Amino acid sequence: MSDFQIRTAQNVGINQNLAGIGQRFAAFLIDVFFLIIFYYFIIYLLTFTDFNKYLSTWAFVSVLMLPYFLYYPVLQYWNNGQSLGKQIVKIRIVKSDNSHPRIWDFLIRWVFKLFEINIFPGLALIVMLLTDKNQRLGDLAAKTVVVAEKQKTKLSQSIFEEIEQTYKPVFSQAANLNEKDVQLIKDVFQSTIKQGKLDILKSLTARIEAVLNIQKPSGMPHKQFIDTILKDYNYFAGK
Hints:
By secondary structure, the chain is of the alpha+beta class. Helices cover 58% and strands 9% of the residues. The protein folds into two domains: 3-148, no CATH class; 153-237, no CATH class. It has a four-stranded antiparallel beta sheet with strand order 1-2-4-3. Strand 1 (3-7) and strand 2 (13-18) form a beta hairpin. Helix 2 crosses helix 4, helix 7 crosses helix 8 and helix 8 runs antiparallel to helix 10 (222-237). The longest helix has 26 residues, at 21-46.
């Protein structure tokens, strides 16, 4: 599983784990399994009806295929980039800038899926092997990537850190942050310090000020301000 850095609209780099080809293939097989079970159930129920008296063969096939055509684009859009298979394997579709894909992006991926998987089996695999981000043609056209989700159990574990018992909070507004906010702040903060891209701290400071409706004291370095916000959050979260 390789790392892939995506850049947000604020030009902040966030590392994501690309979903492996094996993970994507496993999700595909699971989706196929669910679709087979669905159609087996539908056809079984139809054996107890006289549907052939009301629908022509073409109309019946068209109605029966509708869920298949809607399954991927509609479910993935509604379920935050995940089909049932992707949800089980814990991978999801995101835009290259880490934003949520639009319904049109999922439709584009689906149209290409018909071509590179249903009509020409194996084409998607070949393209994914040739691209450095494991993208098939549908991903390239929609500007999407498939990433592996981080374990949710690590969220609360990673945002909390030890602070001195005598610590006095500076910004009471830090208590208004939620875990996801703090996780993002901490990830960007640590990544920025590690890579030495201190100019990004200014953008991160501005975002924190806007969210919490506070202002960094003049003279306080951006690094100290962000570190203080994280410590203040830990102080109030531990109460």
